[in-house]
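Box 3.1 A note on notation
Throughout this textbook, protein chains are presented in two layers. The first layer is the amino acid sequence; the second is a token string describing backbone geometry. Keep the layers aligned when reading.
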Amino acid sequence: MFAQHLLTMADSFRTSDIHILPEQKHYDIYFRLNGQMDKQFYLDREEGSRLISYFKYRSNMDVGEKRRPQSGSMTFHLKEKAVDLRFSTISNYQSQESLVIRLLKQKDANQQEIGAFFRYEWEVLKKLVDAKSGLLLFAGPVDSGKTTTMYHLVKNRLDGEKQQVITVEDPVEIEEVTFLQTQVNETAGISYEHLLKSSLRHHPDVIIVGEIRDEETAKMVMRGALTGHLIVASIHAKNCRGVISRLLELGISQTILEQTLIGVAFQNLIPLYCSLCESNCQTYCSHYPRDQKRAALFEVKTGAPLKDWFNTNCSESANNQKGQRDFNHLLEKVKMYGYISEKTYHRYLISNQ
């Protein structure tokens, strides 16, 4: 069965997404590997339509509806394991459907170390996650490794010591037996806010929040940090400074932020330059291992530099003083060391930082 073969292959490649995309007279299937779209299969139009219909049926979507976007989910059983899948369909103006399949729980949080360009920021994060209480926030685009980073840091914090760690996610992306993992289910009335309230009553040592996406979640996170818990969470923002702006937009006062926030990190996974490929290291190149073709670049703000952002009397020039190790500064260093290409540098450069 082709669907079984497709998912087995994607799982073995540790791909994050499968893209089934319509062309003029056929369908192409791509795997997103290390942030790059890699073409794997060619199907004629009838085969591609049947494959999409099969996945729509298995994930309880309306097979006959091809005009409006749909989403669904399911657990697919392979020969030796089960994988959780999330589906999204959308049609083009010619009523040709495309399907994106997201494979969950494919990331490994048990690797010995996160591949980072600079050790300094990683060591700062390890110290921050050892705090008794407070709020540590991570920002970065989709597929930038935020969840893997949060899990890895918190798991290392335990280091043989029994602590209660609760995660609140939508959905759970990494299975970790040492954590108490909870998942949002809006259909059943289980929201981020509901799970956070319940988690706080459980008196955990650490709470990992998958994403702060609304005012209610933001307020519950702040309440937890104020009552003596360490909360590690992600939030969408353009850079470290954007995290502060985002929280202010969500109705969190500057006073509360100053009392709770112990650190802010922005990260991205940057593809490595390969001298054999003479470009970013390609999927089948052996120069770098398949799961090490990208490395994490972190910007971390804590202590005095973070406090300066709340000081309205602090001049912009002081905030941008040399040596602050902001993301663009570190990205330029990585380029100068030859780890990334000029094209990659301009692609990941944050404008107007």
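The CA atoms of residues 164 and 203 lie 8 Å apart. The chain has two domains: 1-104, 119-348.
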